[in-house]
Amino acid sequence: TVLIVDFGSQVTQLIARRVRESGVYCEIAPFQSAEEAFRRLQPKAIILSGSPASTVDIGSPRAPDVIFESGLPVLGICYGEQTMCAQLGGKVEGSDHREFGRAFLEIQDDCALFDGVWAKGTRHQVWMSHGDRVTALPPGFRIVGTSTGAPFAAIADEARKYYGVQFHPEVVHTPDGARLLANFVQNIAGLKGDWTMAAYREQAIEAIRKQVGKGKVICALSGGVDSSVAALLTHEAVGDQLTCILVDHGLMRKNEAADVVAMFREHYNLPLILVDASDRFIGALEGESDPETKRKTIGRLFIEVFEEEAKKLGGADYLVQGTLYPDVIESVSFTGGPSVTIKSHHNVGGLPERMKMSLVEPLRELFKDEVRVLGRELGLPESFIGRHPFPGPGLAIRCPGGVTREKLDILRAADAIYLDEIRKAGLYDAIWQAFAVLLPVQTVGVMGDGRTYEFVCALRAVTSVDGMTADFYHYDMEFLGRAATRIINEVKGINRVVYDVTSKPPGTIEWE
Ligand code: XMP
Fold it and tell me: Which of 111, 296, 359, 501 has the maximal Cβ count within 10 Å?
């Protein structure tokens, strides 16, 4: 295991991704609890992350002393390099030469970090983002790389296996960065790159068996990749002690509930109960147009329905949840204070307290990409693995204003055509999320010889890494024209199609 000490950089998670891609397991701990994490994990190497803080400020964060007392290899990145220097007897100063963005690193000397990647005398693109810089090295260190703005851009103390880089090897703008990180964890720290999803699968299954024993387990299946993989893993571990419940709230996409059920029943023979609660959900939503009330109504009903079904089964001791590592990592905040709620998200969060169940969270240590790899490992069809995200409240939040069965049917038909065209054009995987929205507005049109007065459909498509920010997708107009024509011709109730060119921020991805 490698311990990554987080000082609050925006890209700390990328360090973890790169380390894991090299086949070495790692965990992130905020600097405040890094000492506790160090004792618990007993890591074989440490990486210190970047930070928005400044080492020259009084009270700025430091790495716990145990790290430097342990004799383990340490790699400091950006702020991590600076605090390492400050803590080991070197000097860091604020400077006027801020460096942001692309820079070039001149390799002054060979070192184990650069082995097989960069040779002495060559020059390479790296990504910088710093104001302060190291101005005097601690004893034992030497310079191995320089840049215009950072005379100490790469430093090494090979006797103690301490390395520091001012640039960010974890971002793609440092094209060779992943290989440097692999050098650090494999060659320098001597960790074998044998952490694979096949190995993880075995470990996770063992852990579930140990946790659950003979207990009864239930899982709320949505058809999304996270809950699907969590359910399959648990089923492999405890077989029919697990029952999955799929609550069809009538807000899913075309054929979705049936497809999910067919896949799980046929391929995995997994005990699965499909509950058609669409009347209840749609009934409760009718006449309600406030987005937050809609979201809360759906969340509340979901818990009610799920709880009733669980009671019919005689209750359960455990609830499986597809919680991922990014939800678990404690974030380091320098601003403090709670953030504003933009939307109340729908998940099964309220269930465990209410039903007194313990959680089984077999994906807690994984990033989304890793869950996909694990899904493939478990034989989940590619159509499930590569799916665009779909929100818990479903099509209700894509029908701004009041929701009716009729509107949902119109939206479902338009959405299916839109996605079909995206797949035919080979664009599905290039887009992060795409969907249709049915506006509560009717406009005048002409079809054949007649006047029409029907709804407007908006199309949305975005690219994103994590849904936190997003850009609207740049289609060519031919494509949009094709999709619009098909929707208007084939869907009764829509006579106009528009494309949403709002990015996030300032827009959100969903319309409500
Ligand atoms: P927004 O609209 O906030 O959405 O930009 C960001 C991502 O989150 C999805 N989303 C949800 N997912 N429950 C979910 O599981 C929800 O209540 C929910 N609301 C939005 C949205 O589809 C996008 O991928």
Answer: 111
If asked whether residues 281 and 230 sit together in one domain, one would say: yes
pLDDT at 308: 96
Of the candidates 273, 272, 277, which has an alpha carbon nearest to the alpha carbon of residue 248?
A: 277
Asked if the peptide bond before residue 505 counts as cis, ω within 30 degrees of 0, the response is yes
For the entire predicted model, the pTM comes to: 0.88
Q: What is the CATH number of the domain that holds 441?
A: 3.30.300.10
- What is residue 326's predicted lDDT score, i.e. its pLDDT? 86
- Three-state DSSP state, 119: coil
**pLDDT score of 445:** 97
Instruction: Identify the residues whose C-beta falls under 6 Å from ligand 1.
Output: 343, 345-347, 389, 391-393, 433, 467, 504, 508-510
In the structure encoding, which two tokens stand for residue 206, read together? Answer: 């063992």
Task: Tell me which H or E stretch contains 36.
Answer: helix 34-41
Output the residue whose Cα is nearest ligand 1's atom 9. Answer: 391
Whether residue 492 has pLDDT greater than 70:
yes
* Active centre residues (catalytic): 78, 168, 170
Q: Which ligand 1 atom lies nearest to the CA of residue 468?
A: 6
- HSE-CB of 505 using CA atoms within 13 angstroms: 2
Same domain for 180 and 55:
yes
Answer yes or no: are the C-beta atoms of 496 and 452 closer than 8 Å: no
Reported ipTM: 0.99
Contacts of 507 (CB under 8 A, 6+ apart): 500
Count H helices, E strands: the chain?
A: 16, 20
Residue 54 is labelled as binding a ligand:
no
Same domain, 370 and 221: yes
pLDDT tens column, 158-186: 999 999 999 999 999 999 999 999 999 99
Choose the residue to mutate in 227, 251, 321, 345 for probing ligand 1, maximizing ligand atoms within 8 Å of C-beta: 345
Distance from Cα 509 to the centre of ligand 1, integer Å: 7
Q: Would strands 133-136 and 162-165 be described as parallel, antiparallel, or unpaired?
A: unpaired
Nearest CA to ligand 1 atom 11: 391
The verdict on whether residue 227 carries a ligand-binding annotation is yes
The Cα–Cα gap between 398 and 17 comes to 33
pLDDT given at position 339: 63
Over residues 20-38, the pLDDT tens digits come to 999 999 999 999 999 999 9
Q: Are residues 344 and 291 in the same domain?
A: yes
Q: Could you read off the pLDDT of 372-409 as tens digits, one per residue?
A: 999 999 999 998 999 999 999 999 999 999 999 999 99
